[in-house]
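Bumping my old thread because nobody answered last time. Still need a sequence for this structure:
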């Protein structure tokens, strides 16, 4: 995934450019000390650099004997470097991951990370904490914001088309598509050139139709899991929406990483977009007046006869810290102390809120109400807090090779070059 939107979610292109030199320097460093001794270490991504660095600085000041040295990397560089480091037994003490059952599960299965005490996640939303568990045991602790996928809409275009509220059901969504097209308004913007935004449609439709157990079977590599009727129906509905003119002309050439997709909504060229909570920062940065007065947001619609709880959400649950099994006992103890006393402190939570994001921490409603953009942040907070299930973005939750095939094959479904059944057969072939 690209750094600016999908992985880090809230990082601007300016911030990426400003930290690129540091990331490249870190890539060329000697790396962590691993089990050879020395102070504990951590690797993180450049997108949260200021917030993460502040947290480690505060912890080191309060606990000088347990101070942790943190290095920052851009997303692609990090993914390559961390796999090599873990495989060679030279991982940092604190390992950054996306939780779920993708690469993170391979760390657990190969005994490269240690189990953690459940008390470390007692203050977090259960749905978010669960993404740090494998087979019921805790191996990772949330370390930043929660990012559910939402349906954003342009209130002015809705009013122009005579639409009083965002669609609450799939049938209403199709009706709104027809209404908007009749008024000469493109219904949905989407960054098709980036491919991963298309996945949010499959994720939510599958969830609404079949519930979270459908993707759980895919994560667990069950034979034929991609042929589940809920997946096939979701793909059919995607092609139904495309044929109904649901997306703006030329969406396949629109790039999300440059915020070209959200720009279509705020400039009145498209009425809606399905994007993560991270997109709010883009709206606010590029056009604060639009974000304040004309931008609306809503949960994904329900599907008639669907088994999924309407309160379930998909998106990026959080990022997570795990502790390397190859670290020395003293390094592991320093890392445990950080997770218990330095991670998600009051100051850390304040920093996350200032950045326009919501940490998955219980009981911070008053802090959110006092922050800028309180309406949006409270909605995101409640959505994540009340979710019975929070499904991690599929391309982060499955093995990298399968994720690459998923994005390629789904793109062909959107383009009408692959049927739902052909998609299922192609994806079943990735299960090992």
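Sorry it took so long. Here it is:
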């Amino acid at each position: 995934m690209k750094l600016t939107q999908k992985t880090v979610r809230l990082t601007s292109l300016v911030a990426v450019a400003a930290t690129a030199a540091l990331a490249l320097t870190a890539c060329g460093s000697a790396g962590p000390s691993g089990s050879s001794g020395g102070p504990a270490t951590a690797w993180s991504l450049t997108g949260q650099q200021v917030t993460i660095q502040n947290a480690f600085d505060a912890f080191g000041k309060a606990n000088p004997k347990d101070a942790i040295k943190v290095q920052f990397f851009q997303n692609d560089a990090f993914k390559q470097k961390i796999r090599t480091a873990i495989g060679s037994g030279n991982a940092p003490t604190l390992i950054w991951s996306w939780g779920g059952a993708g690469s993170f599960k391979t760390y657990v299965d190969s005994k490269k990370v240690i189990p953690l005490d459940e008390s470390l996640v007692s203050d977090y939303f259960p749905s978010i904490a669960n993404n740090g568990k494998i087979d019921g045991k805790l191996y990772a602790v949330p370390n930043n914001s929660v990012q559910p996928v939402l349906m954003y809409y342009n209130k002015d275009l809705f009013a122009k088309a005579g639409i009083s509220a965002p669609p609450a059901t799939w049938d209403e969504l199709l009706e709104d598509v027809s209404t908007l097209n009749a008024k000469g308004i493109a219904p949905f913007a989407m960054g098709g050139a980036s491919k991963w935004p298309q996945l949010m449609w499959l994720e939510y439709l599958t969830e609404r139709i079949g519930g979270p157990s459908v993707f759980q079977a895919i994560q667990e590599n069950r034979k034929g899991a991609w042929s589940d009727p809920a997946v096939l129906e979701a793909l059919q509905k995607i092609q139904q929406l495309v044929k109904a003119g649901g997306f703006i002309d030329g969406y396949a050439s629109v790039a999300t990483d440059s915020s070209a997709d959200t720009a279509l909504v705020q400039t009145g060229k498209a009425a809606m977009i399905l994007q993560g909570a991270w997109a709010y920062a883009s709206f606010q940065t590029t056009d604060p007046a639009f974000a304040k007065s004309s931008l609306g947001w809503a949960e994904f619609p329900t599907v008639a006869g669907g088994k999924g709880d309407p309160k379930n959400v998909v998106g990026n649950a959080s990022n997570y810290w795990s502790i390397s099994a190859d670290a020395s006992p003293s390094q592991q103890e320093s890392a445990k102390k950080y997770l218990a006393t330095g991670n998600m402190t009051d100051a850390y939570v304040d920093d996350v809120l200032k950045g326009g994001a919501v940490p998955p921490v219980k009981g911070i409603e008053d802090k959110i109400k006092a922050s800028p953009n309180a309406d949006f942040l409270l909605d995101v907070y409640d959505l994540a807090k009340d979710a019975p299930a929070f499904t991690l973005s599929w391309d982060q939750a499955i093995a990298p090779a399968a994720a690459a095939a998923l994005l390629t094959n789904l793109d062909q479904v959107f383009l009408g070059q692959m049927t739902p059944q052909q998609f299922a057969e192609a994806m079943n072939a990735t299960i090992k």
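The chain has a mean pLDDT of 89. Let me know if any region looks off to you.
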